Amino acid sequence: MTTITPNERPAEQGDASAGARLNRFLAMCGLGARRKVEELISAGRVRVDGKVVLLPGFRVEPGMSVTVDGGPVRPQRLRYLVMNKPEGVVCAVKDDRSPTVLGLLPAEFDDVRLFPVGRLDRDSCGLLILTNDGGFAQEVLHPSRRILRGYEALLDMPITRADVRRCMAGAVLDGRLVKPVNVLLLDRAPKGCWISVVLAEGLKREVRRMVAAIDREVVELVRKRIGKMELRDLPPGEFVEMSRRALWHSIRTGGIV
Questions:
Q1: Is residue 123 flagged as an active site residue?
Q2: Which of 5, 1, 2, 29 lies closest to 17 in space, CA to CA?
Q3: pLDDT tens for residues 125-134?
Q4: What angle do helix axes 134-141 and 34-42 make, rounded to 10 degrees?
Q5: What HEC string does the chain produce?
Q6: I want to staple 234 with a disulfide (CB 3.0 to 4.6 A). Which of 65, 84, 90, 201 is the partner?
Q7: Report field, pTM of the whole predicted structure over 0.90
Q8: How confident is the model at residue 202 (pLDDT cuts 50, 70, 90)?
Q9: For residue range 21-44, what is the model confidence (pLDDT) as tens digits?
Q10: Which domains does the chain have, with CATH numbers?
């Protein structure tokens, strides 16, 4: 198992944008994962050498000028941050009503088009990846990768083994039956209990809605794992920067932050 420290710096990267498909080129510019950049393309907001291009597979060759909404875009150096998201901030690039995770970063990241990979709601905390690499984000989130997420939740009331079985049976969320990979009772609390929940996908407020289906409420929710990468020592609001290779290694084989 690998321990990641804040002193690790990402390796230098070569120019991978030459001859890239337009959707990948835009992702490398930090404009989001594949779905988001393809929405930009289909909406006619992307021009190459002054002409609207509607084909995600269009090849962007060296020397071509690419604009989005009239503004030039260029590939950035790809950055990969792992944060211990605190409560009270939202996983958004911008929000008019609440502080965002990007607001916790130092000024050196002001011009980097970082975005959260997946989501944690405002009242939840724990592991969160921030990057400007849309291709990486797509890989992490794609169901075929089956990158599990592990959570620990404090419930408002104790539960029984029968409640655990009910939770394992799943709940109807967004019109379909969704089941956790695993649910374990961890420890009793003075007025409730801690449980561990492992999920294979990241629906909105999935843990909270599953717990509500057994007539309980989540008081505190912490994401402890993404794949095999585990949160242990990183203080709330702090982050470490990693190379893409080191981050994938942590997710796939085990790393501690």
A1: no
A2: 29
A3: 999 999 998 8
A4: 120
A5: CEECCCCCCCCCCCCCCCCEEHHHHHHHCCCCCHHHHHHHHHCCCEEECCEECCCCCCEECCCCCEEECCEECCCCCCCEEEEEECCCCECCCCCCCCCEHHHHCCHHHCCCCCEEECCCCCCCEEEEEEECCHHHHHHHHCHHHCCCEEEEEEECCCCCHHHHHHHHCCEEECCEEECCCEEEEEEECCCCEEEEEEECCCCCCHHHHHHHCCCCCEEEEEEEEECCEECCCCCCCCEEEECHHHHHHHHHHCEEC
A6: 84
A7: no
A8: confident
A9: 999 899 888 888 888 899 999 999
A10: 20-72 (3.10.290.10), 80-144+228-256 (3.30.70.580), 148-226 (3.30.70.1560)
At position 224, the amino acid (one-letter code) is K
Asked if pLDDT for residue 178 goes beyond 60, the answer is yes
Which residues 6+ apart lie within 8 Å of 53 measured at CB?
Answer: 22, 41, 46, 47
Rg for the chain (alpha carbons), in Å? Answer: 20
The token pair that represents 16 in the structure block: 């991978």
Per-residue tokens: 79? 């950055």
